[in-house]
Amino acid sequence: MYTNVFFLKRGAVKRLTSVVIRDGWARVRRAKDRPRKPTDERRRISRRANSEVINDPALSEHLPLAVRTGFGRGEGAISLPVEAALVRDGDALPPSVSIVIPAFNESRRIADSLCKVREFLRRTPLSFEILVVNDGSTDGTAEIVRGFEPEGVRLIDHAQHRGKGYSVRTGVLKAIGTYVLFTDADLSTPIDELERLYDIAERGPADIVIGSRAIDRRWIERHQSRVREIGGVMFNRMVRIGMGLNLYDTQCGFKLFHRARTRPIFEKQTIDGFGFDPEILFLAAQRRLRIREVPVRWSHADDTKVRVMRDGLRMMGDLLRIRLNDLSGKYGPPP
Q1: Which long-range CB contacts under 8 A does 119-125 form with residues at least 24 apart?
Q2: Are strands 127-135 and 85-86 parallel, antiparallel or unpaired?
Q3: Model confidence over 64-95: pLDDT tens digits?
Q4: CATH number among 3.90.550.10, 2.40.10.10, 3.40.50.620, 3.40.50.1220, domain 5-327
Q5: How many Cβ atoms from other residues are within 10 Å of residue 101's Cβ?
Q6: How does strand 127-135 pair with strand 53-55?
Q7: Is the pTM value of this prediction over 0.90?
Q8: Residue 200 has pLDDT above 70, yes or no
Q9: Partners of residue 256 on adjacent β-strands
Q10: Of 71, 106, 188, 299, which one has the fewest beta carbons inside 10 Å?
Q11: How far apart are CA 140 and CA 134, in angstroms?
């Protein structure tokens, strides 16, 4: 049973904070002390049973925000040696997947990332569209992306910097694919992990499939600093308690959405910054959508845009804002 953090007494909040910090240190130490496994073996681990956390309201006896966890089963996706079809404007059929990449001052790596995405698409049997949302960059990111437009990449250009959440929302609402993947511009999670998420979404079925670094930390190929990892554990604990979301990692920038089923959620999104993920997942849980969390490979990028103290405090404020929005009816009546 979940406890609403906003109704705890002052002493209880202090004890809760102590428990969160102590638990965070312990989890990070356990993760770092585990022996590393070769990459091929880590890939095999992901395909065995119990590699997914399933948040399915059909399996729950509780209210939408108190969803039980279960476990899935499957062998993962299989790539077929078929050339991918990159859908362009005017094509009759919508693409299978729209890939949305939010970008802010990414001139150093956006070209390399788009080349990796293009190479991956050539090995898959599905049809795709690629949307890059330039969030008011001042370093020539938009000009680099325009160079890929003849290859079918769509550029959505914001005149002003609004935030990652705003860019993802714009991309999802402009997308036309059956599914929409949003991935960070640095490809911290390799783009070929999309195969697994798509397979799970189709096989489940699932409305949302999110990549996770926390289900099995042996999949992390390059760790963040200890401060960042502890901060992530603390934030996740506050999300689980304050939002009632039974998820281990809401902040990994690799998520797949069924566009038609989740579009109404993005239309109600109010958070423009890094705290938008809990809002989207909170609204999805409220509406009893099926969410699956699966382990993915991930490597920390040194030039990440997230600042621990500044953005961490803002994201904590976003959690409060989500709750206040819900209490005031800003998201509309419960479905």
Answers
A1: 120/191, 120/192, 120/194, 121/84, 121/86, 122/83, 122/84, 123/79, 123/81, 123/84, 124/79, 124/80, 124/82, 124/84, 124/195, 125/79, 125/80, 125/82, 125/84
A2: parallel
A3: 332 322 323 233 332 333 345 566 555 568 99
A4: 3.90.550.10
A5: 28
A6: unpaired
A7: no
A8: yes
A9: 181, 209
A10: 71
A11: 10
Q: For the chain, how are helix, strand and coil distributed in percent, rounded to 5? A: 45, 15, 40
Contacts of 11 (CB under 8 A, 6+ apart): none
Nearest CA among 205, 188, 206 for reference residue 300: 188
Match 């600093």 to its residue by tokens: 225
Encode pLDDT of 292-334 as tens digits. Answer: 999 999 998 877 777 777 878 899 999 999 999 999 999 988 7
pLDDT of residue 33: 54
Q: Partners of 180 in the beta sheet?
A: 98, 257
Give CA angle at 90 (131, 96), nearest 5°: 55
Q: Are strands 97-103 and 127-135 parallel, antiparallel or unpaired?
A: parallel
Query: Rounded to 5 degrees, what are φ and ψ at 136?
Result: 70, 35
Of 58, 79, 78, give the one whose Cα is nearest residue 70. 58
Q: Identify the residue whose tokens are 């989890």.
A: 27
